[in-house]
UniProtKB/TrEMBL annotation:
Family membership: Belongs to the methyl-accepting chemotaxis (MCP) protein family.
A molecular function GO annotation: transmembrane signaling receptor activity
GO biological process: chemotaxis; signal transduction
Signal sequence annotation: none
The protein's name in its UniProt record: Methyl-accepting chemotaxis protein
Pfam families, sorted: MCPsignal, Protoglobin
Residue stretches spanning the membrane: none
UniProt keyword list: Chemotaxis
Amino acid sequence: MSEPITSFTEKLAAFGYTPGSYRAFPAVRKIVARHAPAALRRLYDHIRATPRAAAFFGSPAAMDHARDKQLDHWLTLFSGPLDDQYRIRAERIGSVHARIGLSPTWYISGYARILEDILPRILRRGMLNPLAASRTATTLVKASLLDMDVALSAYFQAEEARREAVIAQVGRVLERLAGGDFTATLDDLPPGYEALAADFESMRTRFSATLGQVADAAARINTGSSGVSGASDTLSQRTEQQAASLEETAAAMDQITSTVRRTAEDAARANGAVGQARGEAQTSGTIVREAMAAMDGIARASTEIVDIIAVIDGIAFQTNLLALNAGVEAARAGEAGRGFAVVASEVRALAQRSADAAKDVKARITGASAQVRVGVDRVNSTGEALERIIAHIADVDALVAQITEAAGQQAQGLAQVNTAVAEMDGVTQQNAAMVEHAAAARDLAAEADALAREVARFQLGQAATPPVPRRAEPIRLVATR
């Protein structure tokens, strides 16, 4: 790629200008002065009919002024040798077009319309002198091309300078953005860059709003996580206390369950013992009733013995009377009845002893009968007492059976309660472990603080200022009964 031409002298040399190149300028100027106004009127009528092009001029008067200036420039172009003053005028035209954003098409189309009107006239007039006409036409085309080159070079230089200014401004704004300052805007950009400024402003506004939302979310996360962290600490303490209480309750319930189980077992044994005692009492009642029957038999036998002894006593009395009578008769018999009197005396003595023995036996039997009657009464009382005892033992047996059943049910219920307490203890331990996991909220709060600090580095303007993170009060846990 060749080096760009920077000096106007080099540019003239590139177009082949020499001192002799200006000989045809006066003739060209006369032709331009005669025919250019009509060509420019047609050009500006076309511009006036094109709203997008007419918008660059603002008013018909400004458009007429521009047309007159362009005609004056063309007349000046062919007024003499091309020097720096001409270059400055031509470059000013290109710079103005670049500044107002007028496309080079309209500038070049003006030359096209002039050349379209003038060249045929030059060629028709040159039919008698083709060499002069060719020289005039060449001079017109070469000057037009040079003028377009100078103006367009200035136009593109101004455009490049404007682009460099825009790039520099964008660079400064992006540098501020990189530094966290999102209040920087792309204001006062040249025409043609409105879309860039609008897109940048939309991006900046949305990004600022997003950062503001991130900051607000970080503050809310910080607030919520701080509350959750405090609540988790409180919950952890209460869970530990509850776990300890449940552990103690479980131990106490286990002891109570064991005690109630032993009580149920003791009640069952007592029920068995009472049942056995009831059986033995019933057996004793049977024995007492048998004893009562035996005592009644003894009493009847004693009565019968007393009757028999009374008979024996009567026999002894009769025998004694008979012996007495026999002694009387023996005494009457004298010596012959002496032996019989001895026998009668012995019989009488024997009868007396029998009567005495019968009296003694009767007295003993009578005493024994009295004692037997006392024994019968006492056995009867004992039988009645045993019946009452048997009835009470039956009541006690029923009560002990109920106690045994209730103790068994209590033992089962306490076993279920003990199981439930053990499960609650296990769940509480799991809750305690989960509360330890919930302690990650502290890490979340720290991360939220770090995020808020990072976002706080950005300057987001008044509309999206990130809120200052604040510590929330811990969530209060209300115990319920």
